What does this fold into?
Amino acid sequence: KGTTTFIGRETTSNGSQLVLMGQGASILIGEDCMFSTGIWVKTSDMHAIVDLASGEMINSDGTNARVQIGTHAWIGQNALVVQSLSIGAGAILGANSFLNRSIPDCALFAGTPARQLREGVTWLRSHRLVSDELEVVRNRLGYRAANE
It folds into this structure.
């Protein structure tokens, strides 16, 4: 109830699940993103985790949870993205990763839980370096080399 999903132009997916749970939850995906196979993006844990002594719920029910994925982000095969977080423009999340915190722009994260492996990187749809494609991506991300 009251959930929002937005997928930007030129975004591609080979099989992803977007699961919105919670009042006001949203998943917002920027332009030119690439999703591999078997990806799950969820706004909540889907079940309450309760402290037995106090009877209090200790995880989020997904209310107003927001997953925001920036322009030209790449999510690798079988990745799991959970709860409120953002994935920056040009960022990469490696295959089989579990992400439960935000990723900055142009950073490579991988693992379970995902951790930063590199910064100042992005990806191309080509399987090899293509200068023209790199320039298009740099422009899309607003990237300027240090010597410019």
